[in-house]
Amino acid sequence: MGRAFEFRKGRKMKRWSAMAKAFTRIGKDIVMAVKEGGPNPDANSRLRAVIQNSKAVNMPKENVERAIKKATDKDTANYKEVLFEGYAPHGIAILVETATDNNNRTVANVRSYFNKCNGTMGTQGSVEFMFDHTCNFRIPANGMDPEELELELIDFGAEEVFEDEDGILIYAPFGSFGTIQKELENRGLEILSSGFERIPQITKKLTEIEMADVEKLIEKLEEDDDVMNVYHTMEEA
């Protein structure tokens, strides 16, 4: 198996477990998708993907419809996606993806978490190069051969395809998202969920005590409502 498989295995069950946090994220994704491409999912591939993800976290349909309606209101603020970079203790690189309607608030909060947890905020581009920006799709297995599917999807940008207990996962570079989404839809394959991840190129092994120091910062960041994802170069236990 490749790096995407190991990365997914290491993060499984550790992140994004709180239902309230998942719903908050979906709500922001809906607003950004609608503001970008309109409220019709048939004509808005980004919104279509978000609705698929809402089903994956069991978000009620009425919540989704309400969020779409709210997003069409001119008075509803749009969210700006902002990436923060820095270092946790023990030389662990940290990438923080946020979606915010108040950048000053988010900058101040993220900086305070780094400072309180003995980390250091970095400048733009200081650690982003250490991660591969990828997209992913989950589809039902339905008896399909992952290796055969991988060969068929290589021309559309797929780099790694593997099966776990929840279906088949397809990983590709960030820029291949639209191409693969379209091909899966053309094949009539159900997309259970999709998204983007940043996979560390190299990870660093820490002691349990050192890991606890890094986890303290990660947890602080993930508790913030503006934070969507936190990625790091610490080797998962």
UniProtKB/TrEMBL annotation:
Domain of life (superkingdom): Bacteria
Any matching Pfam family: Transcrip_reg
SUPFAM superfamilies on file: YebC-like
Any one GO biological process: regulation of DNA-templated transcription
Annotated ranges, domain TACO1/YebC-like N-terminal: 4-73
Keywords: Cytoplasm, DNA-binding, Transcription, Transcription regulation
MF term (GO), any: DNA binding
InterPro entries, per database record: Integrase-like_N, TACO1_YebC-like_2nd/3rd_dom, TACO1_YebC_N, Transcrip_reg_TACO1-like, Transcrip_reg_TACO1-like_dom3, YebC-like
Domain TACO1/YebC-like second and third: 79-234
GO CC, alphabetical: cytosol
Localization annotation: Cytoplasm
Alphabetized PANTHER family for the sequence: TRANSCRIPTIONAL REGULATORY PROTEIN YEBC-RELATED (PTHR12532:SF6), TRANSLATIONAL ACTIVATOR OF CYTOCHROME C OXIDASE 1 (PTHR12532)
Family stated for the protein in its record: Belongs to the TACO1 family.
Protein name: Probable transcriptional regulatory protein SAMN04488062_10510
Organism, as annotated: Flavobacterium omnivorum
